[in-house]
Amino acid sequence: MPADDVLTMGRIGVDLYPQQIGVSLREVTTFARFLGGSASNVAVAAARYQRKTAVITRTGADPFGEFLHDALRGFGVDDRFVTPVAGLPTPITFCEIFPPDDFPLYFYRFPKAPDLEIYESELDLAAIRAARIFWITGTGLSQEPSRSATLAALRARDKKDITIFDLDYRPMFWESREEARRWYAEALPYATVAVGNLDEADTAVGVRTPAEAADALHEAGIELAVIKQGPKGVLASRFKKERVEVPPVPVEVVNGLGAGDAFGGALCHGLLEGWGLEATMRFANAAGAIVASRLACSDAMPTENEVRELLEVSGA
């Protein structure tokens, strides 16, 4: 089987998003159902650019798990590494939508999320080594056995080609930021690219200013540091080569959730195409902006033509 362009490892679940915007969940009456989970969303986003993608994750052995298999296949994402866990329900995530910048999330991952039940013994290390891009997330380090499996995958990969660490810090999944920082430090030396916002950079390297965070990530062994700054855009830094700052693409925000995953899939596409750093960041920013202007995450991921159209119209 040909190697994957993008192979991700991490969360999957069902997103239930309210059809009523600007109200509390206590008042919401109808929801729409979507595939969710950052690693899975990134795979979907990359597939929109005709990339061969797959995800390593686990679901519950239930109808929601079956829905996620259907959804992945529908998006063109290979689900051969997605397996069920008996006795654990497929995770569900609710959100509230208060544009332009308040989107509370409520994770139902109890008693434990199946995607944290990934075992090292189950990994296809040959596929992980062969993928042109391998993408892991901070959440995968939060509990065993997923933590050991994620680190084993990174060691097997050993900085080959493009290995991306999505810093993806979710406080509710960790006992403390300090514990997360400890395990992030274990993972960073095996990655070539790190992507995260300022809070996630703080978790990884203890620094909250963009330029200093990029420098600290370089010191930790990262070749390309991408620091997302929300309304200030993004800073990207290649170790001892170049550093660019790119402003955001203005859009009317509907739901900011999923914009980061759209950014991630577009980043993968730009890196695989060999575009320049600034062009890659502008494309990724525009992809994120498109998803922010839509309700869903996975279903909202844009095609390359849609991203190009926004870049042309906005002049970004």
Short descriptors:
UDP-N-acetylmuramoyl-L-alanine:D-glutamate ligase; globular; ten-stranded mixed beta sheet; 316 residues; 10 helices; alpha/beta; four-stranded mixed beta sheet
Question: In the CATH scheme, what's the topology name?
Answer: UDP-N-acetylmuramoyl-L-alanine:D-glutamate ligase
Low-confidence stretches: none
Mean pLDDT over all positions: 97
Structural class: alpha/beta
Largest sheet, if any? 10 strands, mixed
Task: Give the oligomer, counting copies of the same chain as homo and different chains as hetero.
Answer: single chain
- Number of beta-strand segments: 14
Q: CATH superfamily, called what?
A: Ribokinase
Whole-number total of structural domains: 1
String of helices and strands: EEEHEHEEEEHEHEHEHHEEEHHH
* Euclidean distance between termini CA atoms: 39 Å
Helix-residue proportion: 25-40%
Q: Give the amount of beta strand, in percent.
A: 15-25%
- Helix count, DSSP H or I runs of 4 or more residues: 10
Which geometry do the CA atoms define?
globular
Radius of gyration: 18 Å
The CATH architecture: 3-Layer(aba) Sandwich
CATH class: Alpha Beta
Characterise the protein shown here.
- The protein is built from ten helices and 14 strands.
- The strands form two sheets. Strands 1, 4, 5, 6, 9, 10, 11, 12, 13 and 14 form a ten-stranded mixed sheet that branches. A four-stranded mixed sheet has the order 3-2-7-8.
- The longest helix has 16 residues, at 277-292.
- The protein has helices spanning 38-47, 63-74, 125-130, 146-157, 177-187, 198-205, 210-219, 259-273, 277-292, 304-314; strands spanning 6-9, 13-18, 31-36, 53-60, 77-78, 82-85, 92-95, 105-108, 133-137, 162-166, 193-197, 224-228, 234-238, 242-246.
- Helix 8 packs antiparallel against helix 9 (277-292).
- The protein is 35% helix and 22% strand.
- It is globular, with a radius of gyration of 18 Å.
- The chain has 316 residues and is α/β, with parallel strands linked by helices.
- The chain has a single domain (6-11, 38-55, 110-314), classed as 3-Layer(aba) Sandwich (UDP-N-acetylmuramoyl-L-alanine:D-glutamate ligase), CATH 3.40.1190.20.
- The mean pLDDT is 97.
